[in-house]
Amino acid sequence: MRFRKNAHVPPASAATPSSRPEDERLPPRLLVLYGLQHILTMYAGAVAPALVIGAAAGLDGPELGVLVSGALLVAGIATLLQTTGVLRIGAQMPIVVGSSFVPVSVMTAIAADADQGLPVVFGASLVGGLFAFCLTPFFGQLVRFFPPVVTGSLITVIGLSLMPVAANWVVNGAADGMPALSDLALAGATLGLVLLFSRVLPGLLSRISILLGLLAGTLIAVPFGKADFSQVGDGAVFSLGSPLYFGLPVFDLAAILTMCVIMLVVLTEGASHIIAVGEIIGTRIDSKRIAAGLRADVSASIIGPLFNSTPGSSFAQNIGLIALTRIRSRYVVATGALMLILLGLFPILGRVVAAIPMPVLGGAGLVLFGTVAASGIRTLGKVDFDNNLNLIIVATSLGFGIIPMAVPQFYDGFPDWLALILHSGIVGAAVVAIVLNICFNIIGGGQYEEGPSVFAAAPTLDKEYPEEDAREEAPQARDATSGDLSDGAGSPPTPSDEAPSRT
Q1: First vs last Cα of the chain: how many Å apart?
Q2: In DSSP terms, which residues pair with 25 in a beta bridge?
Q3: What is the per-residue pLDDT across 457-475, written as a single tens digit (0 to 9) for each?
Q4: Mean pLDDT, all residues of the chain
Q5: Could you write out the DSSP letters of every residue in 454-497?
């Protein structure tokens, strides 16, 4: 199936031919609808680190609310920087930035220590963010090592790595990992509604099928007691973010060094996400743009301690939403950023969104995250697998990407700092894909006269060389009267206008 270019552009929008796809401007009502869809997609992931770290620190309800509000407020500020681009901070792309899951395990251990606590967490976050900020130009140079064989593998791994997130949302915190039948039914109903809305609704309504599915799933959950709005009115209606609520940051050397290592992982994932979004929306990505985008990512780590928030990174789940809806405008996500800021300043709004049942989010997440993986496979379709080792590059990087998902304790025997890095399947896949691409395609030249190993791709019909391929076809493919090569209609085959690109 081939998507029509600009099929997502509503009649009222005006995108000039010379403009980048992400610069498309939509009417205000569409900005609000599409922006809300992005926020509902990422809300659970944005607040989860705050809840986990707060619980480890032994915080009560109001204090947990401070962490949640701070996470939303900082996510909104960082996302606004990412989408608008201010002082070379931000890639000006439709990327959502929120609290990262990567440092959660380390920050949980620090927060639970009675001698350290949240001030040490915030001090490590601040220094780690400054350290990462200084490294962004270096990571921006990595773009030269990301041809389609690498980007396609990474985008696929990003999508696959999100599947456990959707599954855990469906399980809804069950201690034994066995979801209740009611949760399965609710997730299935939401998934079915999203698919139905995508198929039968016209134009705009089809493009907000995720939003409609989330709302419909929540309405279905209400009469069964799965959605509880009774606590929406509890707590403050408005808050300025409670700056430095837990005191000034405390700087502990061991915590800082650990956080600096973690920020290397955040930078690697962030670069992969920026390249993935660029591939999906069809815009040019260069080293300067990657560096600017990473600065916006790590800005959450720098300003976060002021508003009681933890390090941030770009959110892969929103990449799936872009791929599914084909809404590429960065102004949509900028509008969502303003909504995040409002949620941070008005905690009552956050409590309304938090009432959406987790199985509902899980049902929608299955199709969202699967779309990311499918986009990676689509990118791999541009890669030439003939007479080279591109197939083994893809196979090995996918293997390293899936290992932490299949066996989470696989790297537990390694030193703690190395296990922390390798635990991210995205980082493992990125390192393997980049190194193998350098060894096989840059140093090794990339092309071989014959298949270089048993792992080389099987021969395929190459329409770029019709005469050579036709000679290998069965005798019945020849014209019965003349014996000339034909395409079955009495005329010689012609080269395809869309031959696969050769990496």
Answers
A1: 23
A2: 14
A3: 555 555 444 444 444 444 4
A4: 81
A5: TTSPPP---TTSHHHHHHTS-GGGB-TTT--B--SSSS-----T
Given a cut of 90, whether residue 340 has pLDDT beyond it is yes
For residue 13, the model assigns a pLDDT of 40
Query: 282: how many CB neighbours lie within 10 A of its CB?
Result: 11
pTM: 0.72
* pLDDT reported for residue 15: 41
Whole-angstrom distance, CA of residue 311 vs CA of residue 98: 8
Q: What gap in Å lies between CA 100 and CA 312, rounded to an integer?
A: 5
Q: Got the DSSP string for 247-278?
A: -S----HHHHHHHHHHHHHHHHHHHHHHHHHH
Buried (b) or exposed (e) across 293-308, using 16+ Cβ within 10 A? Answer: bbbbbbbbbbbbbbbb
The predicted model gives 77-87 an average pLDDT of 94
Among candidate residues 124, 101, 220, 157, the one with its CA nearest the CA of residue 395: 157
* Cα–Cα–Cα angle for 43, 47, 49, rounded to 5 degrees: 135
| C-beta of residue 333 within 8 angstroms of C-beta of residue 325 | no
